[in-house]
Design goal:
alpha+beta, two-stranded antiparallel sheet, 2 helices, 2 strands
Amino acid sequence: MTPNRNEPCACGSGRKAKNCCMRPTVPLGKKNLLSMPPIDGAPARMVSAQDAVDLAQDAHSGGNRERAEHIYNVILAADPQNAQA
């Protein structure tokens, strides 16, 4: 019998099954989404790591280095090994 997605996961992690072992894996080549906080009036949103890097590079080239640094920090907090950030 398949466990309910809202029950605790059978692995013992203490998380709901839907957020643990039942969560689908991200296929190779797909980017994980980052939670981009509200910046400069733009609402909070989910973006791919590559889109976040693009936003940071656009801000940097546009002279808004504080915004670029903030976005790079968000990327590095989620993925400290991100070479582009």
